[in-house]
Design brief:
The chain has 189 residues and is an alpha+beta fold. 20% of the residues lie in helices and 33% in strands. The protein has five helices and twelve strands. The strands form two sheets. Strands 1, 2, 3, 5, 6, 9, 11 and 12 form an eight-stranded mixed β-sheet that branches. Strands 4-10-7-8 form a four-stranded antiparallel β-sheet, with no helix packed on it. A hairpin with an 8-residue loop joins β7 and β8.
Length: 189
């Protein structure tokens, strides 16, 4: 399943908060886990985004038992020295669990949100729904776009950013707490 929703956030204050939150963008690739609004109120803009998507404006009909949300930000840039301008093909899983056990543990669903305020070219999301040997479905990384898909089922990548800097917030929904949390690799917020 791939579902794309344009002009997703209607709340201008939340749009601005996400775009302007420098702490969100200063620690890209820093994985965090939130046990959800039913356990604790959101404490930051990423958690408010999660609540906005998955509690207040759930765009698809789901019947999932969710333990919590893993989230992180990503930036690929053609202009920032030392920063990659793409993201290689991968499945989303509990990376540390795989490294330590050789087994895989997957989220039940994932999404990517592209905030307003970034000007860039390239950086599209390529999802290989028919396998790596077939052409991917390519989804433009447009501002205020939400893409929901199965990151455990479909290998995916971020294509090369050719101009500017692409920012994204990735969120995975887990039906059980990832191993990496108990092992201290992912922080619960």
């Amino acid at each position: 399943m791939i579902a794309v929703f344009d002009d997703f956030i209607k709340d201008q204050l939340l749009l601005n908060e996400i775009s302007d939150d420098q702490s969100l963008w200063s620690r890209t690739g820093d994985y965090k886990y939130w046990k959800g609004w039913w356990n604790v109120d959101p404490k930051n803009s990423a958690q408010r985004l999660i609540q906005y998507i998955w509690r207040d404006n759930i765009p698809i009909n789901l019947n999932l038992n969710i333990d919590g949300f893993e989230y992180w930000t990503g930036m690929q840039s053609a202009e920032i020295e030392g920063r990659r301008n793409y993201l290689e093909r991968h499945f989303d899983d509990d990376v540390e669990y795989r490294k330590h056990t050789g087994n895989r543990m997957f989220p039940v669903l994932g999404c990517v949100y592209y905030p307003i305020g970034s000007n860039f070219s390239g950086g599209d999301l390529a999802i290989y729904t028919e396998g790596e040997d077939k052409s991917p479905e390519v989804i433009k990384s447009l501002p205020n776009r939400l893409v929901i898909f199965n990151p455990d089922r479909y290998i995916h990548e971020v294509l090369e950013v050719t101009e500017g800097t692409r920012r994204a917030i990735a969120i995975n929904l887990w039906d059980r707490e990832p191993w990496s949390i108990g092992a201290g690799y992912i922080k619960i917020e």
